[in-house]
Write a structure and sequence with these properties.
alpha/beta; 156 residues; globular; binds magnesium ion; two-stranded parallel ribbon; disordered C terminus; Rossmann fold; binds adenosine-5'-triphosphate
């Protein structure tokens, strides 16, 4: 597969099956010989060892094991809305950093499913762009690659 693709996995709510679907996609692609890497750009609920259950599940289903900082640039301790968890830690979710990590992952694997956090309308920050989660996960640059983030045109 020459056309490297990202898939944005979102849902109407938390605990709705995003990781389940992302892992199913990873396994299905791997069975066809396609290399896959998953990304969870923002995760709320990181344990004392700095690990998040979703990130570990996605890594276990991926073809390779890149640095966790690429797979999950933003992990927060509290399992609450990410912009609140970030504020509690005095941090801010920067969309360009997410886009850069995704761009790197897309150079490493043929397909990169990207799992959103919480439900579709969960904001990542106060900026209006942060209220369009597909934009947060979408790659900068080539519009041809943005089809997977068509949901980003929806407004919450
Ligand atoms: N299609 C399915 N059939 C049966 N069980 C499912 C299905 N999809 C998800 N589940 C179960 O529902 C629960 C939540 O699924 P999952 O962790 O994938 O949700 P999520 O949307 O990723 O949650 P989070 O918001 O925490 O990231 C899990 O226990 C999972 O095994
Ligand atoms: Mg999940």
């Amino acid at each position: 597969m020459n056309d490297r693709r990202g898939w944005f996995i979102t849902g109407t709510d938390t605990e709705i099956g995003k990781t389940f679907v992302a892992c199913a996609l990873l396994h299905a692609f791997r069975r066809t010989g396609v290399s896959v890497l998953a990304m969870k750009p923002v995760a709320a609920g990181v344990d004392a060892h700095g690990l998040n259950e979703d990130v570990e599940r996605l890594l276990a289903a991926s073809s390779m094991q890149p640095a966790r900082t690429l797979v999950n640039p933003y992990g927060f301790r509290a399992a609450i809305a990410p912009h609140i968890a970030a504020a509690e830690e005095g941090r801010r979710i920067e969309l360009p950093q997410i886009a850069a990590a995704l761009a790197t992952l897309l150079t490493m694997a043929d397909v990169v499913p990207v799992e959103g956090v919480g439900g579709f309308c969960v904001p990542l920050g106060a900026d209006p762009r942060h209220r369009r989660p597909g934009v947060a996960a979408g790659p900068a640059g080539d519009p041809g690659r943005r089809h997977a983030w068509a949901a980003s045109t929806m407004r919450c």
